[in-house]
Amino acid sequence: AEAGCLVQCFYRLVHMHTSSVQQGHRVTLSIVTLLLVSLVSLVYSFDSFKGLFPGSGRNSPFISPFACETGVTPDMVDIVSLANKYFDVWNTHDGAAVGQMFAPDGSLRDWDVFVEGAAKVGEANGNIFKAVPGIKITVEAIHPTESTKTAACEILVHLNNDAKEVLKVVDIIEFNAEGKIKALRAYKG
After folding, report:
1. pTM listed for this prediction
2. What is the topology classification, in CATH, of domain 74-188?
3. Any stretches that span the bilayer, and where are they (predicted)?
4. DSSP codes joined into one string, 140-155
5. pLDDT tier at 139 (50, 70, 90 boundaries)?
6. What is the pairing mode between strands 166-175 and 150-158?
7. What is the pLDDT of residues 105-118, one digit of tens each?
8. CB-based burial of residue 153 (10 Å sphere; 0-12 exposed, 13-18 middle, 19+ buried)?
């Protein structure tokens, strides 16, 4: 399925750019292009090589077979990874580390508080950890939006109190180009 997707994606590209080339040369050019694109897509799929190729996502000249088949682009994977990292850090109960996940002018808004600035966000989370020492988050689903660098995160907040309360929450997390959180808006459901 992946190879078929590559063939479809790049046959159109090659055909479009070689309409004036003779038929025999077009076939050879198509095969060479397909081989090169397959190699580049394979290499590009390894994280350690991502920096070698310009662009990613919707405007990238490189389309990974995975993205072609599923619609998931490298930028979307990065958004999901960043969101998961935030929840991992949050679950350590280290308010300062949570604050470091935010841009200097980042903001946090939920049903109880609104704060701006990474240090104040860290402090606000530190207060939560002191007030509810057993609190933990489990992630149910993350829905990335590449165009806005935003993740809509369905989470469960386990208060781990005597009443065994679990809050259903949606966090909307907006990231900047550096992967820092510009804004986090939490909605209780």
Report:
1. 0.63
2. Nuclear Transport Factor 2; Chain: A, (3.10.450)
3. 27-46
4. EEEEEEGGGTEEEEEE
5. very high
6. antiparallel
7. 999 999 999 999 99
8. buried
Amino acid of residue 183: A
**What are the domain boundaries of the chain?**
2-70, 74-188
Residues 6+ apart with CB under 8 A from 117: 102, 104, 105, 106, 107
Can you point out the beta strands (E) in the chain?
102-109, 114-116, 136-145, 150-158, 166-175, 181-188
H or E element in which residue 48 lies? none
Chain position carrying tokens 């050019």? 29
Task: Write down the residue that tokens 């966000």 correspond to.
Answer: 121
Sheet order of strands, 150-158 included: 114-116, 102-109, 181-188, 166-175, 150-158, 136-145
